[in-house]
Every structure is written in C-alpha cells, then in structure tokens.
Amino acid sequence: MTVTTRRAADHLVDLLVAQGTRQVFGVPGESYLAVLDALHQRDGIDFITCRQEGGAAMAADAHGRMTGRPGVCMVTRGPGATNASAGVHVAFQDSIPMILFIGQVARDMVEREAFQEIDYRRMFGQMAKWVTQIDDASRMQEYISRAFRVAQSGRPGPVVIALPEDMLYDEVQVPPAPRFVEAPRYQPAPEALEALKTAIAGAERPLIMAGGGNWTEAGIAALERFAEVQGIPVTVSLRSQALMNNDHPSYAGHFAVGKVPYLSDALEDTDLLIAIGPRLGEMTTNGYTNPKPPVPSQTLAHVFPEPEEPGRVYEPEITLISDTESFCNAVADWAPIAPDRFAERRKALRSAYEAFNATSSVNDDMLAPLYKHLSDTVPHDAIMTNGAGNYAAWLHRFHRYRTPRSQLAPTSGSMGYGLPAAIGAAVAAPEREVYALAGDGCFMMTCQELATAVHHDLRLTVIVVNNARYGTIRVHQEREFPGRVSGTEMINPDFVAFAQSFGAGAARATDLASFAQALDAARARGGVNLIEIVQDRDLLAPGKRLG
Q: How far, in whole angstroms, is CA 309 from its chain's centroid?
C-alpha cells in the first residue's frame, strides 16, 4: 500500500477543496505563509484578497449565507484576529456557518506572550461554536471534517481554528479521502406535529413568524405551501424578509428594529404563534415585551434545530426540534385544518402590509420614492445587502424581496457589513445583480473594500445615503436629550471622487430623477459602481423629521 505524505499546509488546502470550498476570503499574514504558498496557482480554490480582516470575515459570512456552506476566512494572529472578530460576531448572532483560520505563534513559543500571541479559546469563547488549535498535523483531517460538521449542525455558526505556523510545515501521512460533510437534517417528532395540528384546529387567530439562519430554497417553498394551504398569515423576524416572496398573499410583513404598529397589534391579538426558526430575540420582540416572557399569553409553538434554545426566554407549549426545511416539508402537504377560518384575518394583515409598504404612507419624504424606484427597477433576484443605520429603515420598509437569498443583512446590527457582504455575494453569485446599501458612517467603516471589489473584477453597486452624521444615534439623542448633540456629527470625503479613485463608476443623486439616471448608468456599465444619495439632514426615519 502506497503511503502519501504531504506538507500540512497543502493537506489543509486539499481538505478545503474536498469540502467544496472554492473561495477563501482573507488578508495575508506571515503567520500562515505556508498556506498562502499552498494556495499558489492551486486549481479549484481562489484566495480573495481583502483590505481589512473585519471585511474579510463579513464577506465570508455573506458567502456562507449565499451558498449554505461554511464561508472560509483566513487571517493572521493578533491584530488580524481582533479585526476579524467583528465578522465572527455577525455569524454567531445570525446563525451563519463560517470557519475562521488564524495563523498562530509557533508551538514552542506558546504561553510566552510571543509576538501577537493571543489565546483564541479565551478570546472567541463566547462568539463561536467551537474554538480550537491544531498542534498535531497528523490530525488535520479530523479537525477540518469536524469543523464543517459543527459549523453546519443544529444552530449553524462560526468555528475558529488556530494554526501554529511551524505546524504548517510538518510532513504528514494523508488519510483516505474525507467524506463530504452535509448539513444534517432533524425531523420533528410525530407527537409534536400532532400537537401542532390540534393547536391549529383550535385556534382563531394563528400567526407564523419565520426567521433564523440557514434556510434552504426547498424550505422556503414548503413554508409558502404550508401558509397557503392553511390560510395562516406569515410574518418574519428582523431582517429575514427574503424568507418569503413579499408578493405572496400570505406575507404580512416583518418585525423591525422599531415598533411596526399593525404587526405589534396583530401579535398581541394572536392566540397561536408558530415560530419557525427565529430565536425570538430582543429586536423582534420589541425588547422582550411582545410576547412577554417567560410564559407568553399566546400559545407558542417553537421550531428550532437545537434543544437548548426553545424555553431559553419564552416557554413554548409545543416544542419541535427540527431544522426549518424538514419541519416545513412535514407540514406543507397537510390537508386544510380549518378551511377559510383564518382568511379574513390574513386578508386584513396583507392589506395592512400593503399600506405600510406604500410610499404614500409617509409625507414629504425624499428617500421613500428612491427606494421604491430601486425595488421596482432591479430584477427580482437582485441581492440587497446592508449594515446598520437609519438609512436601512427605508430599505426594509419599501423594498420587496421576492427571491430566496436576496437579502443579506445582519440581525446583530453591525455597521460596515453592506460592502463586504456584497463582495461575498458577488463572488458566490456573479450572474445576479448585487447592491450594497450603506449610510455614510456605515460605508466608511469598510470603504477600503472597494479596492477588493475592483481588484477581483466583481459586479456590484454601492448606494451611500449621506446625511453627514451617525443618524441612528442622533435619533436616540433627540429622543433622550433633545437639542444636545454630542459625537454624532461628521465630515465625509467626496464619495464620487473617492469611488472614482479606485476605478469605479460613480454619480451623485439629489432627487428621484438623478437617482434613476445614475441607477440606469450603473446597471449598463457593470463592474463596480457607487451612487451617493444626498439626504435631507432633517429627515431621521421614514416620515419622521428632526423638527
């Protein structure tokens, strides 16, 4: 029997390719030079060179959202790891599969506070599913296979692996080819399904809330069938709007950062809440006030892929430990349980959503028509990304998501996510149009990644809403301390000239006509583009002004 030996760094890259990894996002560093060398002209995998580790990790997170497979990121030790932690936190709170590799000090230097040394188990312990270090190169395959399993199992999330730089040069005997790791499926218990069927039969005002990470297209299609057959209205948790075609007659809107009055009232009035996938976190529940913990007034049926989450805050009456695809497939073909009983309420909630989604619902608002034009103009499968800021309130209210994986937005509320996410999306789906929405403060946190987009010949358009302030914080200031502005004003570069300096197309829009012209030009040009929208500084949120 022939024994094959391989340098550990080459073995690592082989294993990534075997697991279907085609792109690695990262910033090069001397602590993993051997891996960079192994990637040199390696068929089947590309290194996407980013300009800051936080952007690289966020791009990997977005790539994981698009593909359903763990996004892979590589960074150097110390400062590289601390920068990357921003993206790891996004992946953890949003339940996105990701693997972060960190170059580490040599094994004989551990515990000496060597150059840039950090104990990553302590650093990432609360924001990753598994944090480990590969000290024995002969176990490389064991660790990588386990990493892909952990990242995709139960509630998906990030895995962090430290790679001592001297270990990467070890020669190892290559084990038999690894098995391709699929995301496991968890079927709901039959008795729990029967309990849900009984609860629906006895309900007068049921409501579905979909959310969480790692939904599949098959799961989304099954959710739509379930809602359609049973006549139950469907809402989604924070920034999960692409989990259902927003034109579907059962779709009733999303629970946003701020209170959505008609949805808040509907949830109060609901007698059966079927939560499929969301954690029921602070933002979706309006600060844990609706529903009220620990025992909500609504009968709660909670579907979640790992048993530790249901009952963590809200005590469900029916617990279904299942991934969202398996659950939705199990209930999609049920015969109608209460024919037409819920039709009137579903129609009323749909009408309320239509009214809330209409630009006529806000007066004297320059941004609403621009966002509506964007929604009406781009293809239904266009991908919208955003970070955090009050500019996103217009996007979430007036844009309609009609295709799975068309919304990439951090439920963790991380600023700077939009542009790196657009890069990850453009790499994963080059055939689709990609738009990154950002405020001026949000954009400036990762604006250097424009160089990454141009360098790798990507097609994406960045739309920067410029109000020369940290708008969300200013809103909070005005509410809590009226007229006392502190730390929220800023100055900005000429965004058009800034984008053009990278070789991107760029234009400035001050009204609907100029925005429509700039959008048409960007779509026709292709490549990397930026459109700056000069915002009325008195406008704080949809329909709300400073005065």
A: 19
Sign of CA dihedral 246, 459, 359, 536: positive
CA 373 to chain centre: 24
The DSSP secondary-structure symbol of 70 reads P
Average pLDDT over every residue of 251-277? 94
What pairs with residue 160 in β-bridges?
100, 131
Task: For residues 324 and 329, give the distance between their C-alpha atoms in angstroms, rounded to a whole number.
Answer: 8
Q: Kindly state the tokens that stand for 465.
A: 């809403």
Number of other residues whose CB lies within 10 A of the CB of residue 312 = 13
Cβ-proximal residues to 351 (8 Å cutoff; 6+ apart), any chain: none
The full set of domains in the chain, from first to last, is: 5-173 (3.40.50.970), 190-354 (3.40.50.1220), 359-545 (3.40.50.970)
User: If you average pLDDT over residues 351-373, what whole number do you get?
Assistant: 91
List the one residue out of 397, 394, 447 whose CA is nearest residue 417.
447
* Beta bridge partner(s), residue 208: 234, 274
> CA-to-CA distance for 441 and 435, rounded, in angstroms?
17
pLDDT at 482: 86
The three-state secondary structure class of 208 is strand
Q: Mapping DSSP to helix (H, G, I), strand (E, B) and coil, where does residue 498 land? A: helix
Question: Strand, coil or helix: what is 103?
Answer: strand
Phi, psi of 230 (to 5 degrees): -85, -15
CA 423, CA 479: separation in Å to the nearest integer?
A: 36
Enumerate residues 6+ apart whose C-beta is below 8 A from 287.
none
389 close to 471: Cβ distance less than 8 angstroms: yes
Mean pLDDT throughout 510-539? 95
Pairing of strands 158-164, 130-133: parallel
Q: List all residues 6 or more positions away from 92 whose beta carbon is below 8 Å from its beta carbon.
A: 127, 128, 129, 157, 158, 412
Q: Residue with structure tokens 């968890």?
A: 186
Kindly report the backbone phi and psi dihedral angles of residue 78, in degrees, each rounded to the nearest multiple of 5, phi listed first.
Answer: 60, -115
3-state SS assignment for residue 141? helix
